[in-house]
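By convention, each integer encodes one residue's backbone shape. The lines below illustrate.
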Amino acid sequence: MTQRRPGFPARMDWQRPSPGAAPAGGRQPAAPAPVPLGVGLDSAAVRARMVQRLAAGGIQAPQVLQAMNAVERHRFVDSALANQAYEDTSLPIGLAQTISKPSVVARMTELLLGAECARGGVLGRVLEIGTGCGYQAAVLARVAREVYTIERLRALHEKAREHLRPLRLANVHLILGDGMLGYAAGAPYAAIVAAAGGDTLPPAWCEQLAVGGRLVAPMAGQGGRQVLLVVDRTPQGFTQSVLESVHFVPLKSGIA
């Protein structure tokens, strides 16, 4: 009976290298890079726990909780900070700017959904002042039909573009420009949200807000502390409410 030769290689007998031995060529193999907590297969579970904390903290709108659960925050921060991505803390993103706490992003998004023109649970056109790393825009894209987001710092504008490109969010438009001027080309807006605070509201923001729309922005309050300001535009004019204390980077003009 003729024996069939096994295909090559049927088996390779490797000698197990002794501990500390260098491979051929004399170079030690590189140690595997540590995988930050929340990155990879466990990120969904970590996000789910973050969303549970948001709900326990008072966020009620299901579409906001769903959006916060869908967006992977660790992809918007430096890899060295990825293990903190799902903690309720702001993190540096470069150029003296920060990514807001998840609780603040969720809170401001939920406030926008309280606008008169969002009674159906979906926002129309939204303007974000201060794109930053792009995280808030990614969240807004899931609760609004269209998002215009403007950033004055060119390096951050490009970074946000890199972060958002893989998500293929066709309803998000990134603009490099002076956020204090708003973005008249997309007006009027059902909602405007700002990620930087000043002493007064830029007039352009109120002018570009649609009737029935809502503006949410940090503003300097009594004693210099920042507070969250909500402005609603009605057929009769504007009404405003002052809410809790917050801490955002200063609002600046110009393009850098």
User: Anything to note?
Assistant: The chain is about 20% helix and 25% strand. The radius of gyration is 24 Å. The first strand starts at residue 91 and ends at 94. Residues 1-41 have pLDDT under 50 and may be disordered.
